[in-house]
């Protein structure tokens, strides 16, 4: 046989005020709301303070570099160097070697942003007897983010290495990723000043933490520059990397060559949520928890009433439903 139509019987239950069923109904709705708020409160959904998104930072390397060559023989005065500080270069000009720096920027994936950077730094060899067995380098860059808050900051990449054999050339290939000590602002335009050429800023509201800085000669020391760099709240760091130290042969090379290739990768960035986003996540979580808790209490109420736990007055209404 074929069913041509069906009807649904709706059963409603009523009660007088201040009866057990009436009190249960008030208890039920109060409990649903209270349990919902407690769960949301304990889980932290009422204040989702941070969120994340993905962005590839824009990185621009400057021609400024700080390089120190030593023979690593225990003589602290046996070195040659180049720095971006004219005062330091003038004082120690007898130990100064001038580089030729070239920067090549490439857009490998064709998305309109630079994601591959090659730097080549060449130095004339100091003299025939000087053999480089220790190398310390620092490269200065500018970094910016533009997807949410507009962030601009300066920074430095650095590394130091020693080898038992003399250097002819050095090359490094590495990924660059965004590094942060605290969440980014949600929106706004920020310029974080960390320009060592006009002295570090100690303003805790800017990129650096509130650390005292010596503006004397120590400010030119590599250690102090590196220390200030790692204290920056927002910076770029090297991820996976590989480097190669090419040993000098029997002939004296005419120049010392340093080559750096960096791949700028998209990074997962954490930012502070604003009031609108905070309310959005709160509303979603409250609604989801409320529906689950209300369903449980609704089923429990049905069990109590249909089993005669409360004194109620049933009323039936016929509703026609067409297939």
TrEMBL record:
InterPro entries named in the record: TMEM231
Alphabetic keyword roster: Cell membrane, Cell projection, Cilium, Glycoprotein, Membrane, Transmembrane, Transmembrane helix
Residues annotated as transmembrane: 278-297
Source organism, top-level taxon: Eukaryota
Annotated GO CC locations: ciliary membrane; ciliary transition zone
Primary location class: membrane
Membrane topology annotation: Multi-pass membrane protein
A Gene Ontology BP annotation from the UniProt entry: regulation of protein localization
Cellular compartment(s): Cell projection, Cilium membrane
Similarity annotation: Belongs to the TMEM231 family.
Role played: Transmembrane component of the tectonic-like complex, a complex localized at the transition zone of primary cilia and acting as a barrier that prevents diffusion of transmembrane proteins between the cilia and plasma membranes. Required for ciliogenesis and sonic hedgehog/SHH signaling.
Record's protein name: Transmembrane protein 231
Organism: Bursaphelenchus xylophilus
């Amino acid at each position: 046989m074929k069913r041509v139509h069906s009807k649904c019987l709706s059963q409603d239950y009523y009660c007088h005020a201040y009866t057990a069923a009436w009190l249960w109904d008030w208890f039920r709705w109060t409990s649903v709301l209270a349990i919902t708020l407690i769960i949301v409160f304990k889980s932290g959904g009422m204040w989702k303070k941070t969120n994340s998104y993905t962005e590839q930072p824009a990185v621009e390397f400057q021609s400024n570099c700080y390089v120190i060559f030593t023979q690593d023989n225990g003589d602290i005065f046996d070195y040659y160097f180049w720095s971006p500080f004219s005062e330091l270069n003038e004082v120690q000009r007898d130990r100064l070697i001038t580089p030729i720096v070239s920067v090549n920027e490439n857009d490998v994936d064709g998305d309109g942003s630079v994601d591959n950077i090659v730097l080549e730094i060449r130095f004339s060899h100091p003299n025939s007897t000087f053999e480089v067995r220790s190398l310390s380098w620092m490269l200065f860059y500018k970094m910016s983010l533009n997807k949410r808050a507009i962030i601009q900051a300066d920074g430095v990449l650095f590394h130091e290495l020693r080898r038992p054999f003399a250097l002819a050339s050095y090359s490094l290939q590495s990924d660059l990723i965004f590094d942060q000590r605290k969440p980014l602002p949600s929106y706004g335009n920020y310029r974080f000043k960390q320009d060592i050429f006009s002295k570090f800023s100690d303003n805790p509201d800017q990129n650096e933490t509130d650390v005292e800085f010596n503006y004397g000669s120590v400010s030119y020391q590599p250690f102090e520059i590196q220390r200030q760099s790692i204290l920056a709240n927002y910076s770029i760091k090297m991820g996976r990397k590989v480097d190669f130290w090419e040993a000098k042969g029997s002939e004296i090379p005419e120049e010392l060559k340093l080559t750096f290739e960096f791949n700028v990768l998209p990074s997962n960035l954490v930012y502070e949520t604003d009031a609108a986003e905070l309310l959005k996540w709160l509303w979603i979580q409250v609604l989801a928890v409320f529906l689950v808790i209300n369903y449980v209490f609704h089923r429990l109420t049905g069990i109590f009433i249909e089993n005669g736990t409360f004194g109620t007055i049933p009323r039936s209404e016929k509703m026609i439903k067409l297939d």
